[in-house]
Amino acid sequence: MSTDPAFLRGLTSSRRDALRLFGLAGAGLGLAACGVKGQKAAPPKQNDVQKYWAGKTKHGHLNFANWTLYMDKARTPLKDFTQQTGVTVTYREVITDDPQWFGKISPQLQAGQSIGYDLMVITNGVELTKLVELGYLVPLDHSQMPNFAKNAGAAYKKESFDPGNVYSVPYATGLTGIAYDPRKTGREITSIQDLWDPKFKGKVGMMSDAQEIGNFGMLALGIDPEKSTPEDWTKAGAKLQEQKDKGIVRKYYENDYIDALTRGDVWLTMAWSGDIFQQNLSEGSHLKFVIPQEGATIWTDNMMIPKTAENPVDALMMMDFFYRPEIAANLAEYINYVTPVPAAKDVITAQAASATGSKKTTLEAVANSPLVFPSDADYAKLRHYRSLTSATEKEYNAVFQHITAG
Amino acid sequence: MRRRLAPYALILPGGLWLAIFFVVPMVVMLSFSLMQGDVVNGFRLTWHWQNYSEGLSTYDSQLIRSLIYGVLATVACIVLAYPVAYWIAFRGGARKTTYLFLILLPFFVSFVLRTFSWKFLLADDGIVLSPLKDIGLLPQDFHVIATGFAVVAGLTYNYLPFMVLPIYVALERVDPKLIEAAQDLYAAPTQAFLRVVFPLSLPGVFAGVLMTFVPVSADYVNSTVLGGTNNTMIGNIIQNLYLVNTDYPQAAALSFTLMAILLIGIFLYAKALGTEDVLEVATR
Prior knowledge:
By secondary structure, chain A is an alpha/beta fold. Helix content of chain A is 46%, strand content 16%. Chain B is mostly helical. Chain B has one domain (25-282): MetI-like (MetI-like fold). Chain B has helices spanning 2-32, 50-58, 60-91, 96-104, 111-121, 129-134, 148-172, 176-184, 189-218, 221-226, 234-243, 248-273, 275-282; strands at 35-38, 42-45.
């Protein structure tokens, strides 16, 4: 670069330029100074539902945003849907993480612009609550959802995060339990207390998500997370801190716990049910998943329509379509998560009866898997998440993130 | 007239770019750091300076750890990079460009991917540690991943080229005649290096420190991938506050705290090395 002094002076010359730059920055400050508006919305009344859906018609097309590996490669349910209703579907597996997806779509929703999708799948949790509180979701017209009314399992119609399915219906449900490598642990794992066993020092994986880890801290103390109070959170926090201070925890994992378990970096870890099944299938590993005797948590991935959707009627049709038992069965066979449609079990059992060879074995395994169709005894052991508002979220996060962010 | 305007015309594109994409976001973030509220109810500017004090008191250990990791990784970079740069500059001969290209080659692969590959290489039962454990050289519960050492080593590895290149440039400019002159004056090779070559290369080291220490201290990928339960850096905290908690005011306050600490540190460092050196680097 030239070192001609005149040139340098030219670059840095006057104080006025600096002031002008600050003037421009001042404009930016002015923009932000009044604060950034929230848009807290009131819960919808019955006529809001009618008002929204009145005059809306089928467009024959729909854009669907889903999580990765959440439908078979051939997209069979979508093909069936197009065949039976004439509605074509653009399907993209673009969601990998709730908070980041929320971060991506909320500016567009706030500005009232389309996010490019008419149907999306989001887990119950803080982001879903925020979407509801901000009024970013369309209230569903249940008069257009006969299959949901008929086939959805009773438990899925009264979930605490969206009672009465005002904004969402489940796509699939999964359990957070314990996965382990029996060759390494040398014994069967049955209890959450095993995660606190000093014998497994440095070989235990916990999840970094505040809700997931908080749930397990509470379950270890016999507290039902769904009904927990801030005092319970503090107690659970102390229990988890003890586990960390003793060096039992190897690391607080995101979805990479599954690789750590397969590689042998951890021997037992908090885990999601379907992951273990898919990992054993694709890697030939011999991992086991257990619902601990203290209980496991159940979470739900939900379908919903953003308020700026361009094809809401088609999206609603698609949602209801997933509640046909044969469609739900097809989906469960591939993803191996819990289906919200109990009748799908009969469909799979019937398919297994008429199938032969390895196909028959696989179908029977799915039909009898407690991870796809939990028994009543299993359901009794499943606990739900504490639903957090943006006000309680801060308090909750402060307790548990203090542990995971060491 | 035209001569007087020319510098302004030249600065205009870059200046505008920086004003729009650097200054304005900075000011917006600065105002965010003094707000209160949440995403649902909105954020209001209440000149809430406590965001800074709360951030400092809650995350002090992560902040201090980031600076320590930053210093350790930077020092490791200097120790590793200097001999390499020296060798390429004085002994590289006709193949200098090839060697420099080799230093840069890892950049052709995404650094997240490179960091992840460490995880596989150094897994507890992986291809490196497993044989060493089997022959009894290492205890069975020995591990590298999920330790502070792994994080600092990962940081060093990822930022090494940023140290090699500026030191190389500085050494490359050292006139061999100066070394000859030193030898003519009966300086031993060590003396010639310490009193002639090394002082002349300091601006390169200075530039290298700037280019590694600042990004290393704010890095969050290495501690995510290679760290364990007690290796969280301030970058992880800020990222988490922005993306997971959507607590923009706290995240913004922490960002500015980190920036202020780094700026003060660099100014002190520049003073200690002497300001002429800084200017010399800046005008190259």
